[in-house]
Amino acid sequence: MSTTLPPMSQRGFLRWLWRQLTSMKTALILLFLLAIVSIPGSYFPQRGTNPILVDQWIADYPRLGPIFDSIGLFDVFGSPWYSAVYILLFISLIGCVVPRLGVHWRAMRSQPPPAPKNLSRLGGSTFEIEGEVATVIENARELLKKDHWRTVIGQDADGSRWVSAEKGYLRETGNLVFHFSLILILVGVAVGGLFGWRGNVIVREGEGFSNTLTQYDAWGGGRLSSAESLPEFSFTLESFNVEFERGNAQEGAPRLFEAKMIVDRPGVEGSTTHLVEVNEPLVIDSAKVFLVGHGYAPHLIVRDSKGQVVLDDPVVFLPQDGNFTSTGVVKVPDSEPQLGFRGLFLPTSAITEELGPHSIFPAPDDVSVFFGAWAGNLGLDSGISQSVYTLNVDDMTQLGLESLQVGQTWRLPEGAGSIELTGYERWASFQIASDPGKELALIASILAIVGLSLSLFIQRRRVWVKIGQVVEVDQVTEQGSSGTVKVGRVKVEVAGIAKASGHDAIEQVDNIVETLKGQTA
Asked: 13, 164, 178, 458: least buried by Cβ within 10 Å?
């Protein structure tokens, strides 16, 4: 005969939904789901860090690009679906941890449970020793307390007395600390994601930087950060020093890597000098200035077909390998026709059939630049953003290839102009960042490790010592005396359990048995 359950009320449905959301199973599923939805953020370019690359991706894939953009794949960490998973995980963890805090608090303040009526079912050991019941009970209690067990003495209805002991409460404490730390990590990441910002800038020697949005090569900020939140300061890269290992063991490895900066701040009289090195950033208010890279900027002079100078400036080239074989682009929109160059800067030049032109050492021992020249329309007036490190040659005609050393000039074919390599400068790249949630995330990570260690290495155990009925036996007195005396013997049962799979309390039971036997030996 089937029974029909009554319909669930709205309140009952909400209670059921809350229990499902705050279960540990759901929290683990959401944590796994958060990892999955984060994958597109590492595969696709993100608007917050590289908007130019996003625009280029959409232009290269005109069909898929707009679809991916509409569903937020180019702004994963700010999309509604990512935020939904993040918030649900946050709520689920809170719902898991907070109720358990009250349960654990009450458990820590409560007394150990009474001894079971039949300890033999738990294994353990049963033996008889001489002594009084009260004395044996007190000895057992002192033995357990000495080993930091929480104890309580009780008596059954049949007159048997027992000591109940428990330890290992820090196991659950560590478990709760670990899960609470996950909540703190989520809070720290959220604070950093909402209020933090970071940007990158390349600065040549002798040039300066002012901490304004327009000065950055790339800048990305959280939803609640803005240009007004940037601390006011500026600096000048006075010099950049780098030295490379010339021995055979680690040839080419940097031995010195430092930037000497002159910093100015509003309200602070005079300039200050700072030496910024790897892992030793410049700290200004909430921002840190990290030295993250360096390279070369060949100084070029470009003349148009009339011989007029249209470019006289160092141009940043980006290193492509450990020996600083570097690539760069030179755009000259003011010449007629417009000129574009793709260059390969070699600090220490070498040419082989397998590799072609390349550098064999990062120091500028034998500098040369290989150029390819184009003439035509650079496409700068098309309205589409272009990177300063790429050259669109679709509407241009190649003029030729040439290599230059310092002091040499290449006169372009058909009288299109010329390009001269007069020298080179060094540049350094800096990352300037503010992450207000990193301290909280660091503290939470340390707490998570501590909590996980406690939950793994501490075991929750219970031990009981029960004293049974008194057994009286006759014992002959010492030789020369008369008569006999009655000596008391008690039945002792010791058993224990461990509240974790794969562990038991045999070692603790054996230690208690040996000690109690030894006290009456």
From this structure: 13
